[in-house]
Each structure stands twice: as structure tokens, then as C-alpha cells.
Inverse folding.
């Protein structure tokens, strides 16, 4: 991998909560802080495309993400994304040629001590270097084919469709 192109879209991974209002805002992308802290041994760059909860993402937002991928000469992409519509965005990316794209996020904000963000980003970074071309999802310690996975909201995890 020459360089990892990281596109951020918002989602829980980047949320900041404010106790006084029980409200949140999407903050700066957490992935940069995580990669710097882990002292990774590869080149990477971040482009913040959106700062949205994935429940508020539109077809135009998904087209913007696809356009950013196709406009780049890079081969390896990590996209941080909200978990509620991650599968929809993976489907909207469609055929990406020889590119390897892994979407990941977090079920708890990266700033929370018990967040799954660092684990999911680590899994996604390993996956983007080992997988064949295509679009993938890395969540809950597994790499998923987006056509065969869903988010189980009641269990707060990703699982195979039909199981």
C-alpha cells in the first residue's frame, strides 16, 4: 500500500456530546488522532467530506463519496461512516474498479473510553491491505461483504443477513 486515502463522513465515531443539553455535534475526524497515537508505519491522508449522522445522509451525499473515490488515483481507501446507513453507502459505491474500499465506524463515539473506534479502525486498516478489490465493511471484529450484512439495532452490532 503506497498510501491510505481516508475519507470521513461523520457518524458516531466523530460525535461530541454535551451533557447540559444531551445534544451532540459531529467533531473533527477521530481517525487522524487514532492513527497518530498508534504511530502507524504507512502514509495516509484525510479528507473530511461530510459531518453528518448517517441517518441524515442523502443520495447526493453518497454520490459525493463515490465521486471522491473515483476522482483519486489512490487504490486503498478507508471511509469512516455512521453505522445506521453504512450498508447503503457501500451499495451506492458500486463498481470501483481496482480500488479497495473499507467502510468502518463506531457504535460509541471515539472519545468514549469504552468505544470500539480504535478496534474497528485497526481492523479496517488491516483489511484494506489484505483484501481484494471491492467494497467491504469492517465492524465488530469481522470483515463483511456489504451485500450480506446488516446492522442489528436492538443488539447494537453487525450480523450476517438471515442470522
Amino acid at each position: 500500500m503506497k498510501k491510505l486515502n481516508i475519507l470521513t463522513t461523520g457518524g458516531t465515531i466523530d460525535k461530541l456530546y454535551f451533557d447540559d443539553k444531551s445534544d451532540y455535534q459531529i467533531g473533527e475526524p477521530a481517525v487522524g488522532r487514532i492513527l497518530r497515537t498508534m504511530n502507524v508505519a504507512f502514509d495516509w491522508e484525510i479528507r473530511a467530506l461530510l459531518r453528518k449522522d448517517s441517518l441524515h445522509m442523502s443520495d447526493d451525499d453518497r454520490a459525493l463519496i463515490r465521486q471522491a473515490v473515483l476522482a483519486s488515483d489512490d487504490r486503498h481507501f478507508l471511509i469512516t461512516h455512521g453505522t445506521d446507513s453504512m450498508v447503503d453507502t457501500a451499495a451506492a459505491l458500486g463498481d470501483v474498479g481496482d480500488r479497495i474500499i473499507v467502510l468502518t465506524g463506531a457504535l460509541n463515539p471515539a472519545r468514549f473510553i469504552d468505544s470500539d473506534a480504535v478496534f474497528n479502525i485497526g481492523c479496517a486498516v488491516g483489511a484494506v491491505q489484505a483484501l481484494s478489490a471491492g467494497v467491504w465493511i469492517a465492524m465488530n471484529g469481522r470483515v463483511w461483504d456489504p451485500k450480506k450484512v446488516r446492522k442489528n439495532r436492538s443488539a447494537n452490532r453487525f450480523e450476517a443477513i438471515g442470522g
User: Anything to note?
Assistant: The beta strands are 3-10, 15-18, 23-26, 43-52, 76-80, 100-104, 134-139, 142-144, 149-152, 157-160. The first strand starts at residue 3 and ends at 10. The mean pLDDT is 94. The two ends are 34 Å apart (CA to CA).
